[in-house]
Amino acid sequence: MLTIHGVPLSVHTRKAIVTAILKKVDYRFEVVIPVIPGNPPANWSTLSPTGLIPVLQDGDFTLADSTAICLYLDRKQPAPPIFPEDIRDYGRVLWFDAYAGGTIFRHVVHPLFVQTIVGPNIRNVPTDRAVIDDVLTNVQPKILGYLESQIAGKYLVGDTMTLADIAIVSNFIVYQYLGFEIDASRYPKLAGYLREIAATAVFQRALADERPFVDQMGLKRGFLSAA
Length: 227
Description:
Number of domains: 2
Order of helices and strands: EHEHEEHHHHHH
Strand order of the largest sheet: 2-1-3-4
Helix content: 55-70%
Structural class: alpha+beta
Shape: globular
Mean pLDDT: 92
CATH topology of the largest domain: Glutathione S-transferase Yfyf (Class Pi), Chain A, domain 2
CATH architecture of the largest domain: Up-down Bundle
Low-confidence stretches: none
Number of helices: 8
CATH class of the largest domain: Mainly Alpha
Largest sheet: 4 strands, mixed
Radius of gyration: 17 Å
């Protein structure tokens, strides 16, 4: 059985978990809580050369990085695929996965998470409201507007769930956990898309498994009632 190491709230950990659930790959989840305050387990540098989560262990094989893990799982259990056969659609899935990690997470989700959770609750540093305001006012609109323009159906690419959906929606789950909302009047397609994907069985199982951790941190789950 596979082991996935990470934190339930993590965008990247959830990406690996949802992929495993979608493919019906048996796995156990190992919570690596010490990673958050920067006090990892003694063997963490061996498991994760970067010190980041998630990490997958499959027997004596260890792999870090969420995208690498998802690609590995896709080869280990090909059905259902998380990449389409069409070469252009394949490229678009890779692009959205990169956009999720390199743009949405880096420039929106991560700074908001640091200012609302990590700073005040872990590092004892007051929230810098100016950072939050800058993200919401100057950074976020371009990203949300772009995503709104890319949605033409239930899924971002093709007619089945792909890594593009898993990566994008995993980010916005955390975004909404923090109490931020997508303005449905301004971004109706994006709001509907996120709601529908979050309501799928694979996401619902992952979100149910992480609920104790979310409740413990006092995060918002009201948005899921509409999913």
